[in-house]
Amino acid sequence: MHKRIWSVLATALGLFVASTSGLAAYPEKPIQLIVPYGAGGSTDLLARAIATVAPKYFPQPVVVVNKGGGGGIPGRVEVVRAKPDGYTLLFGWGSGEDLVVPHQRKLPYDLFTDLETVCRMSIHSIALAVPASSPYKSLGDLVKAGKSKEYLTASVSTKGASVDVTFLLFGKAAGIKVTTIPGAGGADAITKLVGGHVDFGGGHPSEILPHMKAGRLRALAVALENRDGAIPDVPTFKEQGYDVVTAGSVKGVAAPKGTPPEVIAYLEKKFKEISEDAEFKKIMGDLGQPVDYMNAADYKVWFKKSYDQFGALYKTLGIETK
Fold it and tell me: What pTM was estimated for this model as a whole?
């Protein structure tokens, strides 16, 4: 009997030593941050900001790898199929391809079971803006105009995406009709807005901030619960009496299903340290991106709530899905 007990204890101790020694060795090689978009976008720039300060916190390099194309899905598939050892991570977990696109079409993986949540690093608001030459100086002015016209036009990057949904929700909350005009992407939508071809438009602060600084655009509202740190002088929709709160461009980190819990915990801790780093905050401020860290447990809850919200909005707003 005693021999059996000692045998069980020895086995358990061996497993404990093996697991802790494995964690102690991690990471033994560079960690890849897979950005499922091309270089130069807001997700890519944030990933590179992380890579810049990562040597202070990781014993191995954090390398940004762009896997653009296919609407952001192929890059995600690559992470889903990667070995779950903590060396291949998805950056941008929680963007529109995760919160919005699954309501439009079936994905080649299961959103909630094929990836392990690590953390959230940032979330952009969706900001409503008008050209600097616009007669609308406030959101109230815009709503008043909408009530006197058949409809207002709004430029958006893509039909059915988060900005489109947000502007349609604003129209419903304000009791006005909004007709969204899809462009060939975010840059095209902003060009239409700056050129005065629509009544309003907008996007993420990093997209409109340069135009705000140059005096070409004026932001009237942001669609978060609280103001966006990148444009703190711009009030929320809720502050102005309209219940419009949606997730913007979310920058989270995920790992393939089956990644050891201790590795997830290690990564979660290190990314938190990076989020508190003064140099990182400075880079983020220069990029016009807020730092808004959230740990894995809290982010999972937030993610599911936001995902469900977009699903409900699709039904409420009558947006067609395939």
Answer: 0.80
DSSP state of 168: H
Question: What is the identity of the amino acid at 167?
Answer: F
In the chain, which residue ranges form alpha helices assigned H by DSSP? 2-25, 42-53, 73-80, 96-99, 139-148, 162-174, 186-194, 205-213, 261-275, 278-287, 296-317
Which run of H or of E encompasses 129? strand 127-131
Integer Cα distance of 94 and 253 in angstroms: 8
Q: Which two tokens stand for residue 98?
A: 């995760």
Does 172 score more than 90 pLDDT?
yes
pLDDT digits (tens, 9 = 90+) for 99-120: 988 998 899 999 999 999 999 9
- Given CATH 3.40.640.10, say whether it is the number of domain 127-247: no
SS3 152: strand
Q: Is the pLDDT of residue 141 over 90?
A: yes
The CA distance from 279 to 258, in Å, is 33
Smallest CA-to-CA distance from 115 within 258, 18, 240 is with 258
- Note the pLDDT tens digit of each residue in 271-299: 999 999 999 999 998 888 889 999 999 99
Q: pLDDT digit string (tens) for 248-257?
A: 889 999 999 9
Which amino acid would we find at residue 160? G
Distance CA 61, CA 274 (A): 14
- 16: Cα within 13 Å, side-chain hemisphere: 6
CATH ID of 2-124+249-316, from 3.30.465.10, 3.40.190.150, 3.40.50.2300, 3.40.50.300? 3.40.190.150
